[in-house]
Amino acid sequence: MIQRFIPFLIITALVLSGCSEPSGEPTVLAPVKELKKKYAPDKRTAVFSVVTYEKGKDLVVVGEVDQQEAKSELLEKLKELYPSVIDSVTVLPAKELGEKIWAIVNVSVANMRSEPAESAELGSQVLMGNVVRVLKKKGGWAYIQSPDKYLGWVDTDQIVVVNERTVEDWNGISAVFVTGMNGTIYEGMTTSSMPVSDVTAGAVLKRIGGTEEWTVVALADSRRGYIRTDMLIEKRHWGTVLVPIPDTVVKTGKLLKGVPYLWGGTSPKGVDCSGFTRTVYLLNGVLLNRDANQQAEQGQPVEPGKDFENLKKGDLLFFGRAAGNGKPERIVHVGIYIGNKRYIHSSGMVRINSFDEAEKDFNKYNLERFVRARRIITSTPHVTEMKMQ
Fold first, then answer.
1. Going by C-beta distance under 8 Å and a sequence separation of 6 or more, which residues neighbour residue 337?
2. Do domains 97-169 and 176-231 have the same CATH topology?
3. How many Å apart are CA 297 and CA 299, to the nearest integer?
4. Rounded-to-integer distance, Cα 387 and Cα 389, Å
5. In Å, how far from its chain's centre is CA 279?
6. 140, 156 contact by CB (below 8 A)
7. Of the CATH numbers 3.40.50.740, 2.30.30.40, 3.40.50.620, 2.60.40.1930, which one belongs to the domain with range 97-169?
8. How confident is the model at residue 380 (pLDDT cuts 50, 70, 90)?
9. So which residues are the catalytic ones?
């Protein structure tokens, strides 16, 4: 993504440093490659986009990183190779943001795109009330990092940029977590009232008051309204009382049956394969990584057995290409095991399929590309089951 803007960045850097416009192509030196592997092994979750340009005895270094340590180590190594290094590397968050390097999502689902444009690819989504880190702005767009560390561009009309003090207040004792799959925040205490906003499971709101049936909540942009109390739990219960239990994980997954597949989707409005597993586990107190191959590194490995006899409900199943014949493993799909050789996943829509050839929902293609499994639920605590509508 950043590479498309490199020529512009190089010209700007050279002008600021008193140099003329470059006449050659930028290069990526060995120390740059080395430190990129160290500080940003996954470009989806870390920023290290740097190139160099030789001008006589000078070396111009241009780009962006998201860690000061990365920049310092890079310049130190380059100065061992060149007598003069012109530094044009920006450390994100950008200085012009000041203290406001955080933002709270103020729509039910905010889209994160690969470029600052509505026509750009949808990479992921962030739900209402979730706090994101703001790295820089461009026009009406902000480059953010979501709670699962994913990077992308979001429309600034869908977030409220704030400082750390506001974040602490937002996540305080009055924060509530939405467990109902889909709902509405109304202007009054009746479903016939005008809507303030729609809302999905996984959203975070601020409780202001209310009754046993209706809770008054505030959004990040100061809008207020009423939502059914039975759709909420206290946010502090997420990950404590709200924890994964095999049967409830399966139940949550089945509540999403029929939800359409959406590339980049991570909400009950639409999910891709890893967005589905992420959503299911989010609603059971666990934050999974964003993509399937990232989730394949979480939890504990499970040897499924010849007839899948070692699998348990809630295990993540990974599909793609196993390593072999000189080729590395390639994970491209993920689902959740629900027992009896069956699994639920997002493929066209959220659906259930089977590994058993005798079953009507048997899927030969997925059986042939099944690679391995991971167990996220390593113990089963005794807790009260939360309501999911």
1. 308, 311, 312, 313, 314, 315, 316, 317, 343, 373
2. yes
3. 7
4. 7
5. 11
6. yes
7. 2.30.30.40
8. low
9. 273, 333, 345
- In angstroms, rounded to a whole number, what is the distance separating the alpha carbons of residues 355 and 370? 10
Tokens found for residue 213: 């049936």
Q: How confident is the model at residue 223 (pLDDT cuts 50, 70, 90)?
A: very high
Using alpha carbons, select from 36, 34, 103, 27 the residue that is nearest to residue 67. 36
10 Å CB burial of residue 345 (0-12, 13-18, 19+) is: buried
The answer to whether the peptide bond before residue 93 is cis (omega within 30 degrees of 0) is yes
At which residue do the structure tokens 């009896």 appear?
Answer: 340
CA pair distance 74, 52, nearest whole angstrom = 11
Contacts of 334 (CB under 8 A, 6+ apart): 273, 274, 277, 292, 295, 296, 316, 317, 318, 319, 345
Listed residue (88, 41, 83) closest to 64, CA to CA: 88
- Window from 67-76, 78-87, 160-169 with minimum mean pLDDT: 78-87
What are the residue ranges spanned by the domains of the chain? Answer: 2-92, 97-169, 176-231, 246-375
**Beta strand pairing call for 109-113 and 122-127:** antiparallel
Do residues 201 and 178 lie in contact, with contact meaning Cβ atoms separated by under 8 Å? Answer: yes
Per CATH, the number for 246-375 is 3.90.1720.10
User: Tens digit of pLDDT for each residue in 243-257?
Assistant: 999 999 999 999 999
pLDDT at residue 24 tops 70: no
CATH number of 176-231: 2.30.30.40
Structural tokens at position 180: 């109902």
Question: For residues 281 and 345, is the Cβ–Cβ distance under 8 A?
Answer: no
CATH of 2-92 among 2.60.40, 3.40.30, 3.30.70, 2.30.40: 3.30.70
Q: How confident is the model at residue 56 (pLDDT cuts 50, 70, 90)?
A: confident
